[in-house]
Structures are given as C-alpha cells and as structure tokens.
Task: inverse folding
C-alpha cells in the first residue's frame, strides 16, 4: 500500500464523480442550489426610465438658471405615482410631480428632488400643486434611472455552475424567472460501524461509547448542500453491514459514507461485504489526523470510508468528502477558503500534511489573526475540535513552524 499525498488522494476520488442530474424548481426552493444553465435576461433592467427620487420631472434646460434667490416657476401638468403609466409629454415650462420608481414622462429628462422645491411635502394623499418653484438647476439625466442601466435584454446575468445566493434569487425574480433549472441535491447515505457504539440516548455501558460521528457527519453533509440519509450503526458482523449497504443501494444514493473500520487490523466486515458486490481499496494518506482511508464502490455506488476517530472523521470529511459533494452538486472544487494566520508559539509537526485545531484571536495592532492550538491534539479528542475555530495546515515535509510565522488556516 503506497502513501498518497492529500492532493493525490483527493484527485483520485474526484475523478470518479460527475455532477448529478438536474431538476426545475420554483425560485423559492433555489437558495444555495447550483445553476444548471446560463440565465439570460429577457428584458432590460430597469425595464423603463424611472425616477430615483420623489420630486418633479422637468426639462433640465428649463431650470438651468434656477436658484433659491431666483426660483424658476413651472406649471405642474401631471401627477405620476409609482405603478402608473403617464401618457403626457412635457412642454417647455412644464413639470410633473413624480414618485420614486415612477416612469419618467416624455419630454422630461431630469428629476428635481422635492427638497430643492417649494413643495417639500411627501405626506400620502397630498394633491400635487398647480405650480412649483424650483430652487436649483439639475443636469440632464440627474435622479433618473434610464431603462437598461443595470442590464440589457440578452445579457447573460448568471452562468451555469453558480451557487445561488439570496440576492441572485432577487435578480432572477426581477427578470421573471419563476422556475429555474438547477442540479438536484446529492443524496448521501451515512452509517457508523463498530460493536462499541451506542445510540445517543443509551446509558453508558462498560467498554462502550456513544456514536458521535454520525451526528457530526450528518450535519457536515447537510452544510455542504447534500441530503443525508442516516442508516444508523452497523454492528461488526457481515449481516448487519450488508443490510445497511443494501438499503443504500435500494435508495440509489449518490454516495455512501461510513466511519471506522478502515485501519489495518480492524474487524473488517465493511470490506468483506463491499467486495462481495463491488470493490474497495485501502489507502494511506500522508496526513494527520486521518491517515487511513477507504474508497470503493458497492453496486456501482461510490463509497468513502473515513477513519473512526472523531477528529479524523471530521478532517477527512473537510479534505475529501466536502469537495466530492461540491462536485456532485455541479460545482468545480477550487480549494477551501484559507486565511493567513500567525502562529503564537512554535508548532512541531511530524512531516505529514497536518490539520491542527486552533483558536484564532485578533492579532493586536498587527491586524489579522494569531493562532493558538487548542487542548489535546489526539485524533479522538473531540473537545479540542469544539474549542477550535480553525484548522491550521502544516504542509507536508515541514517539521517545525517557528513562533511568529504565518501559515494557512481553514475557518471551521
Ligand atoms: P476504528 O477505525 O474502527 O478502529 O475506530 C477508531 C476509533 O474511533 C475507536 O476508538 C472507535 O471507538 C472510534 N469510533 C469509531 N466509530 C465511532 C463513532 N461513530 N463515534 C465515535 N467514535 C467512534
Ligand atoms: Mg471499529
């Protein structure tokens, strides 16, 4: 069994995955989904010239000399609320009262805000005056939002492969897209394995621990944008493991994820069962924590086996499974977001690519962040992961990071 680098192992895994199929969803269900088509504007935005202020639509040339001392008086020939459709055309010497978002009438080319007039009254229901005094000149185009200033019909507003954010949904609504073609949510079947594992509500027994991985991993799966199907705990025997894998196959999930039973010497029923209906490789990855990793296929469904230790399972998910889910969702994995942080103390490493639990604090007057390792860094110590808000990444080959040095970290 050769030793793979983290990048090699991830590439090997990702090469087995393609985006899942697509579905058309109502816009309200599309937050955080990935677009499966380019979105092309069917109309200009804004769709018509409109006012960006409450005020008076004017011909700028009419008020070129207007000042507070020598106001220009205009005849008010129309009142244009938002949502109306003015049919008038302003002649020289004329104005129209206009509200924010209302269409600019023909003939007008600017809006004078109410505060630059003698009619600074925005109370609902106040009728428009017959005449208005303009106190200030205004440039042609001022306080108007011309049709198409934001985007034009035919523009590609969003590309396939984009994760839809709340503001994206707003823009798609402006453009009239009631339904959107997106990738469906990948479905991930999850199980834990081990005779020592108890359900969360069971009293502790001698030699047993509660299954924690399935809680951590289920939440990580959902946060990564997939649906989780919890299959529970498989006891360390052939029939128990087989029953769970059959259930996953029955459901045609996109990925089967398990924890534990991947280290050499473990009672390896997962391997036996998978190999009866597929294949399974055991890898050693040059990382810490989480060196052992299993990858295979059960009845053509990809299978990833993470290590059982709770911190190893978490880190293995971040490093290998999250990128896999992103690919299934239709995204291109470009690496996790990293921040640069300063190490408060010297950190010794063993030359493997290491993911160490740390707490980041504001770095005084230097700005940025300073990192302090949390608690015990053993791969079974989940509490120190809970106390951390970042994973520091010590590159492969590095055995010592001196105090004060900057390194990459992932926020968790
Ligand atoms: P294994 O990979 O089966 O040798 O397990 C490695 C370590 O992880 C052992 O201490 C297990 O008890 C522990 N472990 C395995 N599965 C879980 C789980 N689902 N929740 C918490 N700890 C686990
Ligand atoms: Mg075990």
Result:
């Amino acid at each position: 069994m050769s030793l793979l680098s983290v990048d090699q192992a991830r590439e090997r895994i990702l090469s087995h995955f393609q985006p899942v199929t697509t579905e058309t969803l109502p816009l309200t269900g599309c937050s955080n989904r990935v677009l499966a088509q380019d979105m092309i504007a069917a109309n200009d935005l804004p769709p018509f010239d409109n006012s960006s202020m409450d005020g008076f639509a004017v011909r700028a040339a009419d008020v070129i000399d207007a000042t507070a001392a020598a106001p220009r008086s205009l005849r008010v020939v129309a009142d244009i609320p938002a949502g109306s459709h003015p049919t008038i055309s302003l002649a020289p010497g004329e104005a129209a009262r206009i509200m924010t978002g209302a269409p600019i009438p023909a003939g007008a080319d600017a809006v004078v805000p109410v505060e630059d007039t003698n009619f600074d009254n925005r109370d609902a229901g106040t009728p428009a005056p017959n005449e208005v005094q303009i106190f200030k000149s205004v440039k042609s185009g001022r306080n108007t939002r011309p049709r198409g200033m934001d985007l034009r019909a035919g523009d590609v507003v969003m590309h396939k492969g984009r994760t839809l954010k709340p503001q994206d949904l707003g823009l798609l609504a402006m453009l009239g897209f009631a339904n959107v073609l997106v990738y469906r949510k990948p479905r991930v079947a999850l199980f834990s394995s081990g005779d020592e594992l108890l359900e969360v509500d069971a009293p502790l027994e001698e030699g047993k621990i509660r299954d924690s991985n399935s809680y951590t991993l289920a939440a990580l799966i959902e946060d990564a944008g997939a649906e989780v199907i919890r299959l529970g705990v498989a006891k360390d025997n052939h029939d128990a493991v087989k029953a769970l894998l059959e259930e996953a196959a029955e459901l045609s999930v996109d990925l089967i994820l398990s924890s534990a039973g991947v280290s050499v010497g473990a009672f390896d029923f997962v391997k036996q069962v998978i190999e009866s209906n597929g294949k399974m490789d055991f890898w050693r990855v040059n990382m810490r924590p989480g060196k052992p990793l299993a990858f295979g296929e059960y009845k053509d469904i990809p299978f990833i086996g993470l290590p059982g230790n709770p911190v190893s399972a978490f880190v293995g998910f971040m490093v290998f499974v999250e990128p896999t889910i992103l690919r299934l969702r239709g995204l291109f994995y470009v690496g996790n977001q990293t921040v640069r942080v300063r190490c408060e103390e010297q950190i010794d490493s063993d030359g493997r690519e290491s993911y160490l639990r740390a707490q980041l604090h504001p770095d005084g007057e230097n700005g940025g962040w300073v990192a302090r390792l949390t608690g015990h860094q053993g791969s079974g110590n989940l509490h120190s992961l809970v106390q951390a808000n970042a994973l520091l990444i010590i590159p492969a080959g590095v055995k010592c990071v001196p105090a004060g040095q900057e390194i990459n970290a992932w926020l968790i």
